[in-house]
Fold NitT/TauT family transport system ATP-binding protein.
Amino acid sequence: MSHIQFRDLSVSYRRPKSDERFLAIDRISLDIERGSFVAVVGSSGCGKSTLLLAAAGLVSLASGRVVIDAAPVTGPGGHAAMVFQDASLLPWRSVLGNVRFGLEMRRWKRDDLTERALRHIRMVGLGDFADYHPHQLSGGMRQRVNIARALAVDPEVLLMDEPFGALDAQTREVMGNELLRIWERDRKTALFVTHDIEEAVFLADKVVVMGRDPGRIKDVVQVDLPRPRSPDMLDSETFVTIRRRLRESLAEDMASLRLVTEGV
Ligand SMILES: Nc1ncnc2c1ncn2[C@@H]1O[C@H](COP(=O)(O)OP(=O)(O)O)[C@@H](O)[C@H]1O
Ligand SMILES: [Mg+2]
């Protein structure tokens, strides 16, 4: 568990085929409390992935800093585990081999590897599939393997970039529930990007709305729903109120995008 602080963080990229740089995120300050689950929403291109990459130490910063548990992030290290939208599994390795791979990379002691990997495979409900290969699994199952691989290395923070983005609505809902069940057990500090407002509210303690051009924080909404969360909360007044506020925040962004396109 860990406390993440983003302080005046800016990240710039080079424009394609040009020396010119532009700000992908502009002076973002944000606190992710220890053991909390924070969701990030915002239209495409507003810098959500960049924010996660900065937390993982995978981009260089134009200014500002990222601090995890009082230590500045200076590069990729063992502190964070990432889960991406495309289950980035090794096709030639079994489910067990893939989850073991994460541990091998982090130099876990050999004797414990298989046992530890299997424990996490069972935790995501794939106990009977340890010997299967990725192509023999559904999209949802592959994403479970990805989550097991991330959690098995016992990272301080868990960074998830639209992990359920490629799944159908129903599988998505099941996976959201599963993720919460797992997360509620050891409460790793989690930063979760999604384009689904309901998913964000259902999962998170706090939802951050980002806006674009340049990428920045537009709104931060506290989600005061009790835990464990359950699907019946989707109809509660608190849920509906928060969802409306988030929709409105996001709609402003969409409106300005529309003006841009109409001007073309
Ligand atoms: N490696 C890169 N090089 C140049 N531009 C990039 C790179 N990665 C992202 N961008 C640009 O930075 C902006 C923010 O991207 P990103 O963080 O991926 O946004 P999001 O995840 O919210 O869609 C976008 O305009 C995107 O095109
Ligand atoms: Mg992204």
